[in-house]
Amino acid sequence: MFRFSDAHCDTISKILDENQPLHKNNCHVDAVRLKKQNNHIQFFAAWIAPGYEPCASIIRCLEIIDKFYFEIKENGMNIVRTVRDIEKGGALLSVEGGSALCGRLCNVRNLYRLGVRAITLTWNGRNELADGVGEGEKAGGLSGFGRCVVREMNRLGMIVDVSHLSPKGFWDVSEISLAPFIASHSNAKKLCNHYRNLSDEQISDIIKKNGFIGINFCPDFLNDKKATIKDIIKHIEYILSLGGENTVGFGADFDGVDNLPEGINGVEDMEKVFSELAKLNYPSRLINNILYDNLHNAIKRIFESSDTL
Questions:
Q1: Cis status of the peptide bond prior to 219, with omega within 30 of 0
Q2: Burial, 20: exposed, middle or buried (Cβ in 10 Å; 0-12, 13-18, 19+)?
Q3: Does pTM surpass 0.85?
Q4: For 224-253, how does the pLDDT look when each residue is reduced to its tens digit (9 = 90+)?
Q5: Which of 132, 124, 64 is nearest to 94 (CA)?
Q6: Which of 31, 135, 234, 251 shows its CA 20 to 30 Å from the CA of 39?
Q7: Does an H or E element contain 301, and which?
């Protein structure tokens, strides 16, 4: 049976708001279905919606983290904090939106102490770190504070996530980051010209830097029209064509999107994606890279880059 890992879902934020458990629910992801689909590592994001900015962002973040720890304990799941945890698998805690830092560098360290191992620097808008892609063509790059955050994350061995970041911000990260970085849930702009997707140059840079790209299942990012499982495969194959055999994987964005491709209702349908990959007669090594190894190796490289271990 295939196993897989995934670099982004918003499930913890959603079940907090809807007062549902992680064990079994009516969202895209729950613990029962993750286990049945043989999930190895699942990133769980604490998504900080713009309405909480600026002062309540850290409060919202702490509420989601509290829910994360309660549900992980209830379900007997491991938490991925160190290189040694990667092989054991489990849940990796991330924060989506650097506004949670409230402009304080100390909060990078505080979130790290709370088990956060990845931060998506922006959502679509502007925060103290940088402009998001939603700010349009005039969007700027990293602020002075944002540069300090990237350097501190490098020092700690935290995963810098550039999904949602403006192009200028992306290239600023590429210039100053001493460690690989990831786009946890972003697709190829050449196949679907959405502002959230990555250009060929960005994809090639992440490949060059030994990072990771997780394919997002949001239909708007997959196809200008109606999206299907085949569109997921097309984006995987396109990144492979650019040399991404050690880079591409999944960041499905379950529970962070309103709709999913035809034939996908939630994590229970990941096996359909695996079946489509198997039909391509790729070598087993390449399929395993896509399903889990590329993400695991990126996490390992970034954790090992820390000068605090």
A1: no
A2: middle
A3: yes
A4: 889 999 999 999 999 999 999 999 999 999
A5: 64
A6: 234
A7: helix 294-304
Residue type, 82: T
What is the crossing angle of helices 57-74 and 11-18, to 10°?
A: 90
SS (H, E, C) 142-196: CCHHHHHHHHHHHHHCCEEECCCECHHHHHHHHHHCCCCCEECCCCECCCCCCCC
Q: Measure the CA dihedral 170/174/180/182, to 10°.
A: 10
pLDDT at 139 over 50: yes
Cα–Cα separations (whole angstroms), residue 270 to 3, 21, 40, 264, 275:
10, 21, 13, 8, 9
3-state helix, strand, coil in the chain (%, to 5): 45, 15, 40
Strands lying side by side in the sheet with 39-47? 4-6, 39-47, 90-96, 116-120, 159-161, 182-183, 212-215, 248-250
What DSSP designation does 128 have?
S
Query: Domains (ranges, CATH) in the chain?
Result: 4-304 (3.20.20.140)
Residues 6+ apart with CB under 8 A from 158: 108, 112, 116, 117, 118, 119, 302
Q: Is 65 helix (H, G, I), strand (E, B) or coil?
A: helix
Distance CA 133, CA 216 (A): 16
CA separation for the pair 172, 278 (Å, rounded)? 38
